Amino acid sequence: MGDPLSTTTTTEEKIHGLALSSDDIKGFVSNACEPMYRAPQIQDWIFKKRINHPDQMTNLGKALREKLKEAFDWSLPAVDSSIEGADGSTKLLFHSKRGFVESVILRYKNRTSLCVSSQVGCKLACSFCQTGKLGFMRHLTAAEILGQFAIADAMVRPEGRSISHIVFMGMGEPLDNFEPVITAVNRLTQPEYYGLSRKNVTISTSGIVPRILELPARTNAALAVSLHAATDELRSELMPINRKWNLASLKEALLHYQKTTGDKITLEYIMIKDKNCGIREAKALIKFIHGLRVKVNLIPFNAHPGLDYQRPDDEEIRAFQKYLTERSVPAPVRYSKGLDVSAACGQLAAKQFDMLDQVPVRKSLITPVNLNAFSQSAAETMRAE
């Protein structure tokens, strides 16, 4: 029997099993000269039962399972390490073909969320984000994105949990890796595949305006925008992308998106002391919001090595929040999970445990290491499932 959780590098020659469409599966069944009722059986195993290898598809004949193994790639990203946070979060470090990427499992009382990465590194170089300090190395494939979900979901199953919410807020800019992200999102949300609620899958963007305009025709997932400032001068300082698509063009795109979908948009706003969280900045934010239906997530800055930004004090946070809520703008304060293991918002930099306190080095690749005991025990647990 093959290893149902192979952690070898994915191959380019074959479609990955997690990225298969209904038509791909039907075409395979037809070419394999199998009865067509096998197609929904295979699809059910992969997406409903969340089984990641043909050897575990027990109502299929051995010959068909062998054909599936031969036709498609079933490998999953290699888990380099796992770090447990005191608040119940788990940061996973995956070794990809070139560099490392991170995902974060976030456990709440009534749900389990996963923050996934879409790129190795990032092009956008936001001043408050560790990922941007790495530079850009490559895009992840749809299968590599879905592989993060598959591994995390299998990890939490023994706890009586399953991954119910996905946020594309890990490493990389999702809309800069548009087609693989759309494929992954649609596999996650469409009822014939994983079938997660569309409201539970969120694509976050720093503001790539042409892709925001294209989104409604391509997916119905939720949208979040990393705003962080509501004047062009300050936003361009914090987020260089604003120099290409300024606040006026971003708002125009958001108005179009909202008119097309009818959905409320989430604005993410990292609060940086003496930078963007005074009453003057709150007034600018209210002006930007006018005409939009939004919720503003206020995220106190999470410190990380190599940056002098600081978190505002509680009084500043409350004053900023009060200014928004008094003007009927929902503005919950979100204290990020995973702060103690560099897994919080803005802290992901593909680090191994002994590197958490080090400053990220731009465009440097971390030397791969052997899988630790966690990877082996996690695979054994998932095989037992």
Summarize the helices and strands and which ones pair or pack.
Blueprint: H1 22-31, H2 38-48, H3 62-71, E1 78-84, E2 90-95, E3 100-107, E4 112-115, E5 119-121, H4 130-134, E6 136-139, H5 142-156, E7 165-168, H6 178-189, E8 201-205, H7 209-218, E9 222-226, H8 232-238, H9 247-261, E10 265-271, H10 279-289, E11 294-300, H11 314-325, H12 373-384
Parallel strand pairs: 4-7, 7-8, 8-9, 9-10, 10-11
Antiparallel strand pairs: 1-2, 2-3, 3-4, 5-6
Helix pairs in contact: 1-2, 5-6, 7-9, 10-11
Distinctive features:
disordered C terminus, 12 helices, DNA polymerase, domain 1, nine-stranded mixed β-sheet, disordered N terminus, alpha/beta, 385 residues, two-stranded antiparallel sheet, 2 domains, 11 strands, TIM Barrel
Question: How do you describe this structure in short?
Answer:
By secondary structure, the chain is an alpha/beta fold. It contains twelve helices and eleven strands.
Beta-strand percent range? 15-25%
Topology as a string of helices (H) and strands (E)? HHHEEEEEHEHEHEHEHHEHEHH
> Would you identify the regions where 5 or more consecutive residues have pLDDT less than 50?
1-11, 348-385
Radius of gyration: 21 Å
CATH topology of the largest domain: TIM Barrel
For the biggest β-sheet, the strand order reads 1-2-3-4-7-8-9-10-11
Q: How does the helix and strand content classify structurally?
A: alpha/beta
Mean pLDDT across the residues is 85
**CATH architecture term of the largest domain:** Alpha-Beta Barrel
Count of individual helical segments: 12
- Total strands: the figure is 11
The level 1 CATH classification of the largest domain is Alpha Beta
Q: Which shape, going by the Cα principal axes?
A: elongated
